[in-house]
Design brief:
Helices cover 44% and strands 18% of the residues. The strands form five sheets. The protein has a six-stranded mixed β-sheet, with helices on both faces. It has a two-stranded antiparallel ribbon with strand order 4-5. Strands 7-10 form a two-stranded antiparallel sheet. It has two domains: 49 residues; 247 residues, 3-Layer(aba) Sandwich (Aminopeptidase). By secondary structure, the protein is an alpha+beta fold. The radius of gyration is 27 Å and the shape is globular.
Amino acid sequence: MTIISHNSITALQKCKRRLLQHVWVSRILLAVGFIIFFLGIGVIFARPVKYLVDRVLIGPRMVSTFFSDPLYTLPSYGGRTNILFVGMGGGSHDGALLTDTMIFISMDLKHTEVNMLSIPRDIWVPSLSAKINAAYMLGEEKSPGGGYPVMEDAVYEIVGQPIHYVVSLDFYGFVHLIDLLGGVDITVDREFTDTQYPIAGKEIDECNGDPLYRCRYETITFKPGLQHMDGATALKFSRSRHAQGDEGTDFARSVRQQKVIQAIKDSLISSQVLLNPKKLMDLKNLGSKYVKLDREMTDQEYAAFAGFGVSFWRQGKEIEVMTLDTGSEDNPGFLVNPSIEKYDQWVLEPRAGTWAEFQAYFRQQLTSY
């Protein structure tokens, strides 16, 4: 047992009183230290931050609303803003306006949640007598500028949710975006080989009379595991449609596309991008060149999206991925593949005959936060 003497106790008490008498000095020194630290940070980042504000965020109007509540700025339905992202080939060849990538993205503005649903390109749309990937093309052929409304109506028939923005990006923009980000890291789940991947610029090549047009295609192979992909490689990974086995299905293709989008999102919110004003400016210029919107957006809308993105990033949340497929024998999905004779082509349609069942399920998933 340790015995503490009366003199020791008295000395401790005196020391404690002296510390308490001068604690304000310690607090001031600590505060001064923090001030010096933040002043130093301010000096280091003053010019980049000013450049970011002046050049990227489009002036004081956007800055003033950067942290405004998106719920009161963005158009929404039930507290959600819905975006349809579409990818198309571009160029002048046949099929340049087919939207082979269609992803419905729903942002819960109140709870800062994001849901993502890939819409298979082969879904049959009775009102168009065509697959859904042809909706934009058919609308443009009927009336220039009519592609977006026709496509929105077709997607609405499936999901039962309004679309507030349509964002389109062609293959060239997709490749440039990923290259600008320095590539993306993607985990390949299964090995696959596609012997009929289309070569850009060879779409109408006669191949010296070859009836199989083999010169239009190349063979690509992906091995399983984590891979760092540049833009061209990521495009091949997400676009491949003719692999043997499960990876040759449209559903596997949708999963790969979602992987790429997740990887792009991770790169965009990384410190290497967010703290690099030049890269942000390059991204803005790239967006102006390759990204198309179905409507004009105000500075306040851009700011609200930015504010939502910052909040989503700070909370460390992930995008909730949803599926629309044929399922399996044990767990049937919402889609079915009818006989080719029914539509004279390979298509997908709702298993229940209408989209009501899927829409009820979809609404439930969007509100299960």
